[in-house]
Amino acid sequence: MFDLLLYLKVFLVGGFICSVAQVLIIKTKITSARILVLFVVIGVFLEAIGVFDYLIEFADCGVTIPILGFGKALAEGAILGAQESGLIGVFTGGLTKTAGGIAAAVGFAYLFAIIFDARTKKNM
To answer: Fewer CB within 10 Å: C terminus or N terminus of the chain?
Structure first.
């Protein structure tokens, strides 16, 4: 029914991941885009070495909802694609596994571009 410990673990682990990204943004000159790529690559790496499933057992969606989960899905899709289709599956598998999330991101980006007027900080 209501597992307070699970909610606490999800919140703490997800919050820690987001806090690390925020510290990198504030304390370094690394751009947000590079931090995003770094976290995706970390997710891919953790899935490739087989550690990500243990993190999911511990913190459930605390690790799958942040961008690490997208990296895991890319790696998982590439591995499955390679097993099913060989070399071409390495490239198509990741996109197949993450197509829903990518389509949602593009769709919502388009929707918000229509609704809101985008401006740079200089124009504000």
So the answer is: N
CA distances from 52 to 31, 75, 88, 117 (A): 26, 11, 24, 39
Distance (Å, whole) CA 59 – CA 117 = 38
Angle at which helices 52-59 and 4-27 pack, to 10 degrees?
A: 120
pTM of the model: 0.78
Q: Tell me how far the alpha carbon of residue 70 is from its chain's centroid.
A: 3
50: left (phi > 0), else alpha (psi -120 to 50), else beta?
left
Residues whose CB is less than 8 angstroms from the CB of residue 95 and which lie 6 or more positions away in sequence, other chains included: 77, 102
pLDDT of residue 123 exceeding 70: no
Domain-by-domain residue ranges, the chain?
Answer: 4-123
How many CB atoms lie under 10 A from the CB of residue 82? Answer: 16
